Amino acid sequence: MEKVLILIHGMGKHTAESFKKEIITALNNALSRYHSYSSIKFEEKVHVYSVSYDHIFEEQRKKMASSGNSLKEFINNGLNNANILNYIEDLNDIEADMGNNDFIHTHALDVIFYLTIIGERVRSYVAQEFLGIKKKYSTTSEFHILAHSLGTAVIHDTLNKLYTKEETTDTQLNISDHSIDSLWMIANVSDMITSISKLTNPYDSIVKPGGDGCVNKFNNVFHELDPITLKIFRRFDPPDNNSWITKDDYKLLYKKYKTTKVNKLNTHDVMGYLEDPDVCFDFFNHFFKFCPDQNEKSIGDSAFKDLFDEANRLKEFINSINFMGGFKEYIQTINKFIDFLR
Amino acid sequence: MKKIPFCLIIIVLYFSNLSFADDINNLFPKTLNSAKELSAQLSYISKNENTNYNDVALFAQRLKQNAIDETKGLQKECPYLKEDIEKFCDSILVGSPFQRFILISSSRVYSIGRISNYRVLPVDAECQKLSAYNNKDCVEIFRDLSVALNTSFEKVLSDDIDAVYQKLGLYSQQWERYFDKARSQTSVELIVNTFFYRHELRKNEFVPPPICQGIILHPSVIIEYIPDADDGDKQKEALSIEIVGVNWWDSKIPFGFSTVITCSDRSSVADMGYGLMFHFFNNYSLGATLHKRDPGIFLNVDLLKMFENKKDNLQKYIDKVKKIRTN
Q: ipTM of this model?
């Protein structure tokens, strides 16, 4: 039986290859900590594909920047003595600045673009790429998805449109016939994003395990000190009270990973998440038998350092966040986190 | 040592890369073969090529018999397995959605279909005693069983995926055209067009792009001609701001219009003009303005380039004809 892992990246500059390399490196780093598995390469056991949608945002950004800069030049040189309305110039400056390579334009803008009509283009594209990968394999193969950060919102919204339990339209699949074997949502921001986009939120959508969902196993991963997934930012953390899925399904088909070790200051980094023993142990067992003996496991787990000083610095930063709500403040908080990391 | 024929090596290598290489090692070969036969029949029915349901019933019965026979060794450890296989095979005749054999190896459970009625796999030690299944652990055995049984739906489900892939491809292309071929959008326009299309975007299904685009505060450079301006000032570049408008970007003849303010640096007429702008084929625009009492007309740069090219070509033709005549 073939096993396929499909990766969906988050905000920032990514290509399909760069994100795939990042994930494979993290997984192989984790494997190398356990002596019996140190010679195994993850990509030799599992077919790994990466779907990148960043080019859609980049194309838009470049078009806007190019147009804005041309106009800016014309306004400055060709209309010296003309009476231009100030706000027109200000609006055009926003377009012209799209070409800047600061955090707002390389990261936050991805989120903003996704929330506009561009988001539907992204979703159609990702869905088509996903199906393109599925077409390469028998339907009896296993299909797993791993998404990080903004990618969790993208894949959530995409799957919610792609799957249905009702009669299918010509752009939909039935949840029973084509369910996904496992979904790994790392730093899940789908609830935050859907609260702004007003698309179906993850508590009500079809992207869940169990009889009414399109996924067989749902793995939800967040770090207690990842500012992007704090509770105040609508972290997706469904309760075990039959409201989201039944208690039996919750026990068997859903797993929450609240990681605590601080291996690097950037607790949002996907590599840190995957290399954490609490995550990688179960992750590997989704694909092959990963069962180091007790001694080997202990040595391998402890090789993943937990940095006390970094953890304290992060706690101080998080305690300093005074979030009053709103998308703008959310972006500002992410911006502050990036500055803090620098 | 006998030399192995090169072509034989190639054939072996070729087959080892095919996905059904797993089939060769499947612990339930008869079940798998029955499932393949059934898969073909189900595909014919779904394409309305053959409505002989008796054939399907026959193949489903054969599948059931083979699956029950081949899982006899497991049935002691999994007392519900026979009943589940019967349920699986009987449900095939009902059609899609199918009651697939769903194995969740990480939780060591399986179920038939989507109902939350999970069966727990036996402990590995029990499975590994079973020489009939090559002393493999339970997850490996049940994986093979799930492949064997679910192969029944291979063709139908592949066809499903193909159909949705094709249709989504069309949607994806339409969205690409919306952003590449339609008029470019500023940040303000993106926000406004998103707002007006929000009900469509929030549907739990994919939607094509809107048939028209709103135009709001859209700046561009135009070439404006004001006949009443002083010599040297009649034809000049100007900034146009489309205040509000609409463009049907994908109609048979893409067409749009907007109200416009133009702004240019002329000493003999008012800087600002007010008027209307018309768009054709998304890239070409022309319009008319009034600068206080001075009328003007304008083209956008793309349209001007088109005329310039034609004008150049015409002049080249005229020169060529003159040259031939003088010769």
A: 0.91
